[in-house]
Specification:
Helix content: 25-40%
Pfam families: AHSA1
CATH topology of the largest domain: Alpha-D-Glucose-1,6-Bisphosphate, Chain A, domain 4
Order of helices and strands: EEHEHHEEEEEH
CATH superfamily of the largest domain: START domain
Radius of gyration: 20 Å
Number of helices: 4
Family: Belongs to the AHA1 family.
CATH architecture of the largest domain: 2-Layer Sandwich
Number of domains: 2
InterPro entries: ASHA1/2-like_C, START-like_dom_sf
């Protein structure tokens, strides 16, 4: 018999000679045996990482914003069909479903917030794109939180070598 399941996010620093800091998600289950013993049992542990980076896009924020939310423009710079809407709560899909998720919030010409799907992952992986005017066009600030550690390298390479490189090339 299984009881309640809950999660607990913690920041941990290992102190065994190789100091590394990271965010972990503990998933607890409270089954019959652990209830009788009065203590929770850890079902699994998953390490999450965050990524933050600034990119310069040689176009004004209004144009960059449109390029990120308009399916026809996304197709021009990505080379792929896109499903995208500025409606909060709507689903989106890019690069033949390589990237998919839910749109959370928009501020025209300034901010896009999305939840990216990684299976049944908890907590949600959130992408925030902030557009700032810059003397060379737009400074695009990317914040991507709760990336599963096993996907981190691929996600960062995708941001740098595909997503942002394609957008920068489009305006070059």
């Amino acid at each position: 018999m299984v009881g309640a399941v809950w999660k607990d996010e913690r920041k941990i620093v290992k102190r065994n000679g190789s100091a590394s800091e990271g965010k972990f998600v503990f998933i607890y289950s409270h089954g019959l045996s652990t209830r009788l013993a009065g203590c929770p049992q850890i079902s699994y542990l998953r390490r999450m990482k965050d990524y933050k980076h600034h990119y310069i896009i040689p176009a004004p924020p209004e144009e960059v914003y449109r390029a990120l939310v308009n399916p026809a423009t996304i197709r021009l710079w990505s080379g792929e069909e896109a499903v995208m809407s500025e409606e909060p709560g709507s689903e989106f899909s890019l690069w033949e479903d390589s990237i998919s998720g839910r749109n959370l919030a928009f501020e025209a010409s300034h901010k896009i917030v999305q939840e990216w799907y990684f299976g049944d992952q908890e907590p949600a992986s959130i992408v925030t794109l902030l557009l700032h005017p810059h003397k060379k066009g737009t400074s695009l600030e990317l914040r991507h939180t709760n990336i599963p550690e096993e996907d981190y390298t691929d996600i960062v390479e995708g941001w740098n070598d595909v997503y942002m490189a394609s957008l920068q090339d489009f305006y070059a």
